[in-house]
Structure formats: structure tokens, C-alpha cells
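Task: fold both queries, return C-alpha cells.
Query 1:
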Amino acid sequence: MKCLEESYDVVVVGAGHAGCEAALACARLGLETIVFTVSVDSIALMPCNPNVGGSSKGHLVRELDALGGEMGKNIDATFIQSKMLNESKGPAVHSLRAQADKQEYSRHMRQTLENTDHLTIRQAEVSELIVEDHRITGVKTFSGAIYHAKAVVLATGTYLRARCIYGEVSNATGPNGLQAANHLTDSLIANGVEMFRFKTGTPARVDKRSIDFSKMEEQFGDKRIVPFSFSTDPESVQKEQVSCWLTYTNEETHQIIRDNLDRSPLFSGAIEGTGPRYCPSIEDKVVKFPDKSRHQVFVEPEGLYTNEMYLGGMSSSLPEDVQYAMYRTVPGLEHVKIVRNAYAIEYDCINSRQLKSSLEFKAIHGLFSGGQFNGSSGYEEAAVQGFMAGVNAAMQVLGREPVILDRSQAYIGVLIDDLVTKENHEPYRMMTSRAEYRLLLRQDNADLRLRGIGHEIGLVSDEEYERVCQKERDIEAEVDRLEHTTTGANERVQAFLRAHGSTELKTGATMAELLRRPELDYFMLAQIDPKRPDLPRDTAEQVNINVKYEGYLKRQMQQVAQFKKLESKRLDPDFDYSTVNSLRIEAVQKLNLYKPASIGQASRISGVSPADISVLLVHLEQLRHGGHSSHDSHGKKQES
């Protein structure tokens, strides 16, 4: 029987946040790329929360933008409220978050894909991988069409054998009632891919007209909006914003939930998948935190042209009658009308330890993977993985080396390293606490850290790269000027110090010395520093941070230097660790399972101890000197 047959450089399966970034990266690098989606109307769909960014996630989006990704530009064009979180804390945990107009976000991203050269969009379900001799050669759709490819990126999100559940209702659909992808899992298993079954969930969407906002706390956006993208003109995003609202559950809410736990598929056993620990359902929170008298509920608009409101913090899979009962106990929601029920969604994903740090499958050459399919959660985590998978698929097709960010370079590096070296039995969520070098990996300096890499890849223009190079030069020059500009103990300076609760000077001091005082900052010092240059605000912020936190930054850079030493000690991916004397059995098993790329990566595998790492270091040193014979505990001679 005849069937359609076409050839492309890269096939991308899925057009969610991961698939969009993967497809755009490949096409922008000049490769003929086709992206498959179960529905063209679901491109860049936001099936859960209506925002981009947030704690640590904002770091990911800005890093993605610095490398040449699209998410930051897209949210800058479609946001309805923007806020910098954690501003009362240090700069390492400042995180940008923007409320999105969901329909506009999806429409704008679709428009971007549709107008990108070398990119084809195709609505079809990919049902089979074509693998020959452990190498991907293409995919087959449910209709029987064959698409040959040099590389394939899987970004299936939560669609594989998806099931949406609330109470006793179970629908075999993807999010928002969209068609599930029910056939690809069998092909993956047939090709030796280990699969997990994970679960996530979403709260109800309710009618804005049925909410009494007078009983809630209004949440405003920032007066001065900071864009996500380093390419966005800050003046272009200063606009009128829409409010969000905050209310709380109470003991009555919790009692209704407790009384109906036997009807919750989460507790009855109807849901098999493992849910995210850091984004639990409301029934999970009530059970796990019985002493808490209330939980926050964020009431957020889904867009400018809809009355649907999102009830953040009240994700649930309880029956719809219980949903109505519990929601109506919350202040402001006493007469609420549900537009879409809350539900849990189960889906297939992979055990991510099967991936290299490039996000290529270890066992299938040319097959890459990104997003929730890798066992992570969140739009932002998905987008950065999709981008890196797409970039590395393109690098392989173009005959170039893979791009791998390490833990000292980016949150993206932390995320991917955690996925490929740690056992993840629940959806992985990025958090600032996961990044050990977070003082260096701030959201404000993502361009300084990563623009150069984006330029080397070919996704950052010469003009954008030169702009960040000039920014670096300006920062260095201004820091040097502050270190060598002295002010005397005159009355004008003393009055300034008194006004800001700072100790008066007994002798002269440099501007840098004054800046390091906790109560002062670079912007305040403008009053007594008339010769300072007129710098853009983002450049001035870098000057402020670099001088004020100089000691901490130097200490962290020393830690990074130690980290880099271990990362530079490469390991053979085909090495058999059972041949190394003195390694514990558990370490041998874990190392042979994960096949780490370096000593540094090996040290982060659970079950591998510092003593095991010392043994490996000795082994590498012996190999460097031409090999070494040693005896095991039974006196038997072995080659190291």
C-alpha cells in the first residue's frame, strides 16, 4: 500500500513549550525541520497556570533568552502583569514572573513558528520510531506516513497515553480535552526505552462574574516592569497591568476535603502515576499538613478576552460536587461558578537516566528528548530542555560538538545534570536551592554568562553579542573607577551619610568602600558622585552587585574552580567499572548504570561515595601513567 514519504533534517514530535524551542532552534540554524502536533491549535498551549517565570523558573527563561531561545520574547509580547519576586532578599533569588494572556501567548508563538524559514508544521500523531542498528532514521505517523530524518527530538509533554481524572470520571485525553497520543509508548518500549508513569494536576477555572473580589487581597504588578528578554526595549513593556487576587482556604474547606478523601482517585488508588512533591493538590496539602489552618489561593486572570480565572493553589482531582462545595467555602468564592473542572492527568514519560548530558538517548543515536517527557514539570523547565535538545540535534546533523552547560554556568546545566545523574521518581521541579553556585547564576546576569555561547551556536546575532561585550566593558570600567575615586569627609558627604543612617567618615574613602556598606547602594551614591557616567539601569545593577558582593563572589568563583577540576577529568562512556579494584559493589552498579561523562558527574550520582571518587581518581592517575597492575583482596592480579 502506498503512503506519504518525506525527508527532513530534523523531526520534532510535539509543539508545546519544549517542541517550539527545539523546532525554532533547528530551523534557525538552517536545517529543514518538521514539527508534529496533535492539534495546530494547541501550539505553545498553557494547560495549567497562566504565567511564565517565578522562583528559579525566571532564571531559566532569561538564560534561554540569552542563548537565543524564544520564550522570553513571547511572554514580553503577551503578558498582562509582571512582578519581580523576592526583592526583599538578595539578588541571587530575585526571580521575574509574568502573568500571560494564554490565548495571545499561544497565538503569538504559533505565528512565530509559521513565519520561520525551514520550518514545517504538521498536525498528525507520530506513532512509531524508525530505528535501524541503534540509530534513528525517522518516524511513522498513525496514518502510515513516513518521515525520514537525520535526528529526532521527542517533546511529547503530557500526551503519551494521557488520562484526565476527577472523582470517578476518567477520560483518555490529553490536557484541556485534547487528543491523547496512544501509540508511541509501545514503539519506545519496543526499542528498549524504560518508561515511567507520572501525574500532575490543575485547579478549576471559574467565571470572573461569580467572584466577590471585595473579600480578597488585590495583588498588583511592579510599577517599573523588567522585560524577560535582553532584546526587548524596556520602554516597550511599560503598560497598564491587570490585577491578581489572593484569598485563603479555611478549616471548613479542609473538613470537606477530609470527609471526601475516599472519593479522591489520588487516595483510592485510581491514579497510578507519581505526582510532583513541590506542586501538590489541595487534598494532598490538607493530608500532609494537618496543622495548617489555611492555604493560599491565587485568583489569576487567564487573559484579557475571557472571564475565566485560574485558582492557583487549589489543584484537585476530587469529584465535581466536592469541588463546588470546597471552592464555595473560600472567601470571595461563595457563589463561584466553575467553567472547567479541576483534574489530575496521568501520562507516560521516560526514566531520564537513559539520556546523555546532551539529551541524546545513550542507546539510540540521533534520538533526543526534552520537556515533561523527560520527567520534569513546568513550562520553563520544558522550554529550556527542548531548546538544548534541539540545539544538540542540530549540532549532530551539522557535524559539530554538542553544547553542554555545566552546573557552574547555568540553571539549565543544573536542571539537565540533575535529570541525567539523579534517580527521579516524581516530576522534577527547578528550585534556587538546587543550584550550589546560585550567587553567580543570577537572573540579572544571564546575558553576561551565556550570550557568547548563544553566539557560538549561531542563534545570537553579531549585533546582540557586541551589545553584551560593550556592557561587560562598561561594567569593568565603572567598577575600576569606583575603586579609584575618593571622596573626602566634607559636610555634603557627611550630611548624605547621616540622611541614610550610615556612619560618618573620619578620613577619605573610595566610592567602592561606601558602596559596600549594607545601607547604601550604587544608585544612592549618585548624590555625592557627580562624575559618574550615565549607564543603562541593567549595567548599573551589575556594578552595584559586583562591588557590594565582591567577597562572596570571589569565594564562589574559587568553589567553581574546584568543581571545574573534577569536571575536566573525563570518563570513558563504555568503561566497565567492575574492573576497578576497591570500588564498592553499589558504586560499581550505579556507575555502570549511569555511565558518567566525568569524575564530577560521577560524584553526584546517589550511591557513589567520596571514597569511591578517590578510588576513581587514583585509577585515572594510573591510566595517565600507562596503566597499573594491582591485586584485589584475594591476592588475584587484575589490570586497572
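Query 1 returned. Query 2:
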Amino acid sequence: MTMTLDPVTLAVLKGRLEQIANEMDATLYRSAFNPIIAEAHDACHGLYHATTGATLVQGTSGLPIFVGAMAFAVKAVIDRVEAGANNDPGDTWLFNDPYEGGTHLNDMRLVRPIFRDGKLFCWLASVGHWLDVGGNVPGNFNAKATESFQEGFRIPPVKLVRKGEFQHDIVEILNANSRLPQSNWGDLNGQLNALDLGEQRLDALLADYGVATVDAALDAFSARAEALMRAEIAALPDGRYSFDDFLDNDGITDTPLRIALDLTIAGDLMTLDFSRSAPPCQGPLNIAYSTAVACCYVALKHIFPHVPANAGVLKPISFIIPDSTLLGVKAPKPVGGYTETILRVIDTVFGVFAQIAPERANGSPYATINALSLAGHRDDGSRFVMFSFFGGGLGGNPEGDGLNHGNNPISTATIPPAEILEAAYPVMFTQWALRPDSGGAGRHRGGCGAIYEIEALAQSGADVFLLGERGKFPPFGVVGGGPAAMNRFVYDGPDGPTSPPLVTKITDIHIAKGQRVRLESPGGGGYGEPRERDAAAVRRDVANGYVSAEAAQAQYGVDLEAGR
């Protein structure tokens, strides 16, 4: 018999459970060694179902892309247990396998079973982006990788802790295969501490309310999320809708890669079919099935923001993602550039909803993380790997202009501050500014991208690696809005400023001390017809430096000199 809980108890338990995940997030952010976790918050924690691995609760500051992916990750451990592996109190599993619920090799996952009265109650899990996990390229964003072995070491689900006993030999293997073992060691301990705290808080909650009550609450949360999602889908017009977008290239061959979505709505059910997408590619722009599902979840959560973040949301939704496409690959296809592909998948969902429900749509965000690494040796001989991702403009939307210099919709992460990067690495930012005329024109303008210029300070200079996108296909506008500016990368070469042949991807270049790289990120696509934009808003954009006087005249029909 299912227990029925009153609304007040449900609200209290919802807050307590979310607080557990939030405290786990905060613990890792405050203790991690690398800025991508500590400052950028590229991590996530949550509670997961004992037998299915489904997401029960996730922290509010963790990366949204990990919500769906972590459910597959926990299920990978459950599969090991069902196949005969022991699973005991005090165990903690570790892995980074992108084909078994991971994303890419840098995202290290820890999964811990939580027992109550001798019975498995749920799983706690932690994921964080480690700075370096071996492979051919420092930081692991290898734009030329043709198999996963060139991207880093791959760890299947293994026990890092057995019945409370730490397995030091596993850590020795991890350390021996990384350029930055001290950083990884610090991040690993931060993740373990986060799980320890989560277990303590969950034990206290179960002691206060009992297993049956908390179980009933978790079931109620999932059922409510499913009901709300079904209602949202049922309110949309039935039909089949399609949208295509493209990746610049795979880093190996300069050929565009199609990401195609056919979305069907039938009553309170939705099907997302990606069968028309490009086949698996040679370079690292592939993703695994679990990653594709996870980014679809993120896109839908943006469109339906009031639906709770748990697995119930996905019950009325079906996915068709064949392994004959680059969205459902298996090992050893390279997947290190997964961030670029999932952003394009999200864009196709945004694009198709501009047809279905324009009142919910927004212009494409800048839709590339611009994974940039500068690596080399400090003047004291110690090694450094500066990896960072960068901001851009978000799309215009029905309620207003897109955000200037924001982060992508896969993430609640923040862009690492220039001061932190300069303090940690021998680099100097000589420019960090908004990029004028980069946002798509529209009744609601797309946000501006940014300009970053970085100078190498070490005597030996720095090796430079970039894996980005949107250098050939601009972020699109919707409902009549215009496209944004495209991505642009320039570095100081032997013959002066140079752009990569593949536009947004490069490896194996070196800049000397005093030389610079320059990244100009895209803006967001516009929303609505540009000529419908209020003239006073256009003048304000020009005064703020977001739009030039020439663009105000050409795109919006506003003549500043004439005062019109």
C-alpha cells in the first residue's frame, strides 16, 4: 500500500533532500584544487533510485547536463552489481567511461550505495571535471583525436573504496597517467568528502522521518513531475516538426555535420527522433546515447522551466537515437568534444519549438564552450595546464533581450575569473570585453559575445589547443530574428595574426613569450523582427557599445543623426 503524505510534509522533505545535494555541491566547490570545479562549478551531486538509477534529487547549482547523464552512470554500477559484483556498505565506485553513462573522460564519477537496516535505500553520486586525464593533449580537448585512446585514460566502474578501505593502488594508476596528479588528488578527496557529508545528512533525515516516509515522498515527486510534463505536452498542438543545424567539422575533415531532429507530439506523448543526423565522424564530435538523452532533457527543462528536475520528466518522452549516427556511438569512437555536439542538439530542440510554440522559443545561444588550453612549463620548471571555457551571448526571447556574456544552457557554471586564471598560470589577459555587433538583431536582441586576448608570460611560451564551434554556422534567430556573429580565433603566428584552417579547432601550435591568442565568441540569435524593436532601445544599445551606429541603421532602420 502506497503511503499518502500531506503537502506540508512533502514540501519539507523536498527542501531537506535538495539541501543535501546542495551541501554536497558546496563541499566540493570549496575543496576542489582545480578552478574548473572550484570557480566554474563544473560538477554535480544527487540522489539516485536504488534499482533503476533514475534521478531522484539533484543540487540546484550542479550542471544540468549531468542530471540525465548521471542516471545512466548509476545504472552502469547497478548493472555491475546485478552481474555479480559485491556491493557493500562503505563501498564507493569510481569511473569515467563516457560510453557507460559518462560524458567525456575528464568527468570523473563517484557512486556510493546507501544502506538502511541492511537494505539498499538509494545511491549518492558525485561528478567533477578533472583538469588532465592523460591522452595526447594537455587538458584532453584533442581536436585531432580519432579514437578515445588519444583523449585520455578510460576507467570502467571499479571500487575505489571497499567496505571503507581505500584502494591506494587505483589512485597510483590514476596519478601515473596524468600530467597534474596533485590537482586530481585534491579533486578526488573533495568528491569523497562531499559524499561523506551527503551520507551523514541522509542518515539524519531517515532517522527523523523513517524510510517509508522518505520513499513515499520520492515516489510522489517523480509522479508529480511526470504529470506536469504530460500536461505541458498535451497543451501543445499534435504534429511532426523538424529542424536541422550543423557543426562546422569534426576536427579532421572540413565537412559540416548535420544534427537533425524530427519531433512528434501525440496527445501527452513526445518523441524525439535524430535518425537523420550525420553518421559517426572520425574526429571527437561524437557522443554516446546517454549523453544525447541528457542534453535533450536540458533543452526541454529550459522550455518547460516549472517542471521539477527528476526522472519523472522523461517518462512521457521517447528517444530514437540510432548508433548509425554520431549521437549514439560506442567505444572507441572519440567523444572528447561532446560539449559542442550537445549544444547543437539543444539548438535543434530550441529551433523546432520556435515552430511549435513561438511564445516559448528563444534565439540560439552562442552554443560553443570554446575549450581553450594553454600548456607548458613555468619559469621554475613546474608544469602547468590552463584549461578554461568562455562565455558568449544568449538568445533573445519573448520577454526580453538575451544575456550579454553568459554561459551556455548546458550549465549553471560560471566562467572562471581572469584574476583566478592569471594567479594560477603564467598568462595575462590583455583584453576581456564585450564584442560589439555580435548579438543577432531582433525585436529582442541577442546578447553580445566577448573578446578575450591572452598573452603567454613564461620564458618557454605555451602550447595552444582549441576545440570550439559556430565558426561557419552562426547562432540562429527565431520568429524573424537575425543570426548572431560567428566564432573567431586568431593567434600570433610566424607571419603575424593567423586563423586555424578548420576555423574553430587547432592543436600543435606554440606561441612564444609575449605572443597572444585572441578569441571572439559569438553572440545569441535575435527574437522577432528587428524593425519592430523600439528605437529608444536601439539608441541605448549604441550608447552602451552593444550595437554600432552602422548596424543600427542597416538592421533596425534607426538613423541616429536624424533622431529617428
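Both queries returned. Flag for query 2: The mean pLDDT is 95.
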